[in-house]
Specification:
globular, alpha+beta, 7-stranded antiparallel sheet, 177 residues, Jelly Rolls, 3-stranded antiparallel sheet
């Protein structure tokens, strides 16, 4: 059973994230009896996730400020402040921030997505080692350890859709690439 939980902004777990951004874990599965996880992200301009899929979690992203492009399955969406993206489980997706600054709120259900962010990111309660970065290998390892799959690199703004080979690999249950 979930119990009430309250935390001030200063109490949120903060992780160094893609491109120098910061990911804050607002609620994790321990706070919600596994029902959901809630994150807030301040990504850097141009930040992009690799094309990936999580077979067991739905994800909802609200763009509080800024702009971004999302690719989901065979579709592309451009969002600005106030926009929302529903990223269903088992559907490949990715995003790219297109504004100088952005503020995202993301909900994952069921909970547990925070373990991926923790595995790939750096806990900002500790000094960040010089030269530390999140690369493709770190993202792939964190994804694999947490039931997700990195399918390919981030897309460029010229890409209209996720490449068919990546979508087919998921449909057929085979390795991408």
């Amino acid at each position: 059973m979930s119990l009430p939980y309250f935390a001030s902004a200063a109490e949120h777990e903060r992780l160094a994230w893609l491109g120098g951004g910061v990911m804050s874990v607002l609620l994790d599965r321990a706070h919600t009896d596994g029902q959901l996880s809630l994150f807030r992200s301040a990504p850097a301009a141009g930040s992009a996730s690799p094309v990936h899929v999580h077979p067991d979690e739905d994800e909802i992203v609200v763009l509080l400020s800024g702009s971004a492009v999302f690719w989901v399955g065979e579709r592309r969406f451009e969002l600005d402040a106030g926009g929302v993206a529903m990223l269903p489980r088992a559907v490949p997706h990715t995003y790219r921030i297109t504004s100088e600054t952005a503020d995202l709120l993301a909900l994952s259900t069921p909970g547990g997505g925070e373990n991926f962010f923790r595995a790939a990111g750096w806990d900002l309660s500790q000094p960040v080692p010089e030269g530390w970065t999140i690369g493709p290998a770190e993202l792939a390892a964190a994804a694999a350890a947490n039931g997700q799959r990195v399918l390919g690199p981030p897309l460029s703004l010229q890409d209209q859709v996720i490449p068919a080979a990546l979508l087919e690999a998921v449909r057929e249950g085979r390795p991408a690439g």
